Amino acid sequence: MVTRKKRLRAGKSIWQAFPAPRISTRAATDRMSADVLVIGAGISGALISEMAAAAGLSVIIADRRGPILGSTPASTALVQFEIDTPLTKLRDRIGAGNAIRAWRRSKLAVENLAHRTKYLGIDCHMVRRNSLYLSGDSLNAEKLELEGEARNAAGFETAVLSRSQLKAAYRLSRSKALLSFGNLALNPRLLTSGYLRHAMAHGVRILAPEEVVRIEVRAGGIAATLKSGTRLQAGAVIYATGYELPKIVKLRSLKIASTFAIATYPQKRRLWATQALIWEASEPYLYLRTTPDGRIICGGEDEDFSDEDRRNALLPAKVDHIRLKLQKLMPWVDTTPEFQWAASFGVSSTGLPRIGRIPGRQDVYAALGYGGNGITFSRIAAEVLTAQLTGRRDPDEDLFMF
Fold it and tell me: By percentage, how much of the chain surpasses pLDDT 70?
C-alpha cells in the first residue's frame, strides 16, 4: 500500500444522484509499460492524464476503487481563481511578487480549463459565474476593502460593494463585499468522465480496481507492483490520489481536514441575482452556488481533523449549522436539504498546493494539498507536470514545488 487509505466521504452528494457516463477499465497484465503511471482516476488524474497523453506520452492510470469513486463526487465544484488565502495575507507569507504570481496562475488555470473543456466538447453543465466575497471575522469591512485594492493593483478586476449596494443588488446584509468575475460552476463527475474519455481516445489505459502496493525507483525508471502481484514498468509515476496522501510524503505543511455540505430541493424562483458564487471572509467560511435545476449547494463548517468516524458522526449537527447560517444569510430560501454529505480535503500552510517531483525520489511526482481550489489546482498540476515530464520548465513551478 503506497498511500494512506481513507474513507474520503460520507452521506450522498448531489452528483451521485445523477448518472455519469461509464468509463471502461481493464485488468492489468504482466509486462505492461508506459511513459507515465498515474495513481488515481479522479479529477486530478483525469486532467493530468489527458494533457500528458495529448502531449505524446503513453499513460496508464491505476485506481484501487475505480474511476470517479474517491473525492471527486464530494466536490461542490465552485471553480474559482480566488485562492483560499486572501492576496493580502498570502503576500505576507510568501512575498508580494510570488503571491501575485500564484493568483495570476490560478486565474489562468480557470480560463484554460474553461477553454479546453469547451474545445473538447465535454458537457459538464459548465457555466460562467461571478463571485461575491463577503466580509466576515477573517476580513472585516476595512480589511476587505484593502483586499480589493490589492487585487485591483495586481490586475484583477474587482468591484468593492458597500452595504447599500450589496443589499440592493443581492438582498444580502453584510458591511462590504468584493465582486469578481469569470469563475465557473460545473458538475465534477461529468467533467472528470469527459476528460477520462478523451484521455482514453489518446491511448490511455485505465486499470481498475487495481491497487498499487509498491513503487521501486530503478535506473531505468519505475517498477510498480499491484496487489494482484502484477508488475508494471513506467518512466515516471504521479500520485494523483487526492486526499489519500502518499506514505513517502511527510511534510508538516500538509494535513487533512473535514468539510460538510448540503444541496437543497429545486427552488428557481428563490435564487439570488446572477446566481454568483458566494463565500465568506471567515474561518470557517460558508460557500454557496446554484445548480442548473435551481438547487442551492451550501457548504462549510470545516473541522481541523481527518478522523472519518468522528467526521461522519458530526454530519447531522453540521447540516443543522449550515442550514442556520444559510437561513440567516438568505431568509427567503428553503434550506431543506435533499442531499447532505461530509468529505475530507487537503490543507497547506499557504493555501497553495504541492505539485512536482517528491524530494529524493527520482521520477516520482505528486499533486497534493488542494484546499478549496481543488479543480483549479488540478488544472495547474496538469500543466506543471506535463511540462516537467516533457523536458520543459513551467515558469511558475517554483511556487508549488515540495
Answer: 95
- CA pair distance 366, 285, nearest whole angstrom: 28
Confirm if 400 and 371 have CB atoms less than 8 A apart. Answer: no
64 vs 257, more confident: 64
**Polymer length of the chain:** 402
- CA dist list (Å): 322 to 167, 209, 286, 288, 339: 22, 35, 8, 11, 13
3-state secondary structure of 223: strand
Rounded to 5°, angle at Cα 290 from 152 and 316: 110
Phi, psi (degrees; rounded to nearest 5) at 97: -60, -45
Backbone angles phi, psi at 76, to 5 degrees: -90, -10
Q: How far is CA 3 from CA 175, 212, 253, 269, 308, in A?
A: 45, 9, 18, 46, 16
| pLDDT surpasses 80 at 243 | no
Would residue 331 be called left, alpha or beta, if left means φ above 0 and alpha means ψ between -120 and 50 degrees?
alpha
The per-residue pLDDT for range 265-304, each reduced to its tens digit, is: 999 999 999 999 999 999 888 999 999 999 999 998 878 7
Asked if 77 and 33 count as a contact pair (C-beta separation under 8 A), the reply is no
**Cα dihedral sign for 284, 289, 291, 294?**
positive
Burial label for 300, CB within 10 Å (0-12, 13-18, 19+), is buried
The answer to whether residues 263 and 295 touch, using CB atoms and an 8 Å cutoff, is yes
Q: Are 102 and 352 in contact (CB under 8 A)?
A: yes
d(CA 305, CA 290): 28
d(CA 54, CA 383): 12
DSSP, res 3: B
